[in-house]
Design brief:
Helix content: 55-70%
Strand content: under 5%
CATH topology: Hypothetical Protein Ta1238, Chain: A
Oligomer: single chain
CATH architecture: Up-down Bundle
Shape: elongated
Number of helices: 5
Number of strands: 2
CATH superfamily: Cobalamin adenosyltransferase-like
Largest sheet: 2 strands, antiparallel
Radius of gyration: 18 Å
């Protein structure tokens, strides 16, 4: 079995799908690396399955799998190799989960501080990394790289879902959501 140690990245480059090499600081590596970071944060949430509402476990697991599709699409600059992409079904699933969970929450009347519960805080952290990934993908797109529209939609919707999921965890753990105060 070949080793994970290839030494090919010792010069500060990494290989993309198709074999092209780019710097580890390249906007493309920043984009898919941030998606990888997001996936790692989601697994932290999933590891707390004793406390995680069942209504979130399955969606978060599916999201992990979909994030690999996102990463593969971002690492495939010229679509030199067929990789499964994000489909409308992935976007629809996020929207359905949001529609199912959002009515369970109290109406939000102000900005909320991230947190409320340990799981809520972890999901807020994942949400902020998701938004950073979105910014990295937009930067890649503005550098001239074609980015599938559904990929952009999926990542945007995922940030919304993670916000709702964080609020759900806070609510179910009977923790208080704290509204931002501007007088402090």
């Amino acid at each position: 079995m070949p080793s994970i140690v290839t030494k090919t990245g010792d010069d500060g480059t990494t290989a993309l799908i198709g074999g092209a090499r780019v710097g580890k600081h390249h906007p493309r590596t920043e984009a898919y690396g941030t998606i990888d970071e997001l996936n790692a944060l989601i697994v932290i949430v999933l590891s707390e399955e004793d406390y995680l509402p069942l209504a979130l476990f399955s969606p978060l697991l599916r999201i992990q799998h979909t994030l690999f599709r996102v990463g593969a699409a971002l690492a495939n600059p010229g679509r030199v190799q067929a990789v499964p992409g994000v489909t409308q079904l992935h976007v629809d699933a996020l929207e359905a989960w949001i529609a199912e969970l959002e009515p369970l929450l109290p109406v939000q009347r102000a900005f909320l501080l991230p947190g409320g519960s340990a799981l809520g805080a972890a999901l807020h952290h994942a949400r902020t990394v998701c938004r950073r990934a979105e910014r990295r993908i937009v930067a890649l797109q503005h550098s001239g790289a074609p980015i599938p529209e559904l990929l952009m939609t999926y990542i945007n919707r995922l940030g919304d879902f993670l916000f709702i999921a964080a609020r759900i965890c806070t609510l179910l753990q009977k923790q208080e959501e704290i509204e931002v105060r501007y007088d402090l």
